Each structure stands twice: as structure tokens, then as C-alpha cells.
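Quick sanity check, Lipoprotein:
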Amino acid sequence: MKNLFAFGFLALALTVASCNNASKTEETADSLTNAIDSTADALTDSINAAADSATAVVDSIADSVKNAQ
């Protein structure tokens, strides 16, 4: 769900950037770069959280197997 909002925001940023006039190109480029960086950071955090959760589950299963023996 987060990805849907992130990509939607990116699409909106690209649409706004394409509608601006040529005199605001640098400002738009900076704004777009910030939006992309923010989206990439959010996606990285989400992936890291999922990886941490998966690692915790695997560790829990491994501990259960050790304790069962």
C-alpha cells in the first residue's frame, strides 16, 4: 500500500513538473529530485522493515527447532 502512495506521489510530481514553464526548470528539477529521494528512502525503509521481520521469523523458527530437539 505504501508503494501505491509513493508511486502516485511520484506521478503527481512528474505531472506538475511537466506543466511548469521553462523559467522554473531548475527549481522543478530540485523539487523532483527531492521527491524521488524521499520516495526512494521510504521504499528502502519499507524493504528493510520487511527484511527485519523475515529475519525475526526465521530466527524464531530456528530457536523453536533447537528447543524441540
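Posting the structure with no commentary besides this: Residues 61 and 67 are 10 Å apart (CA to CA).
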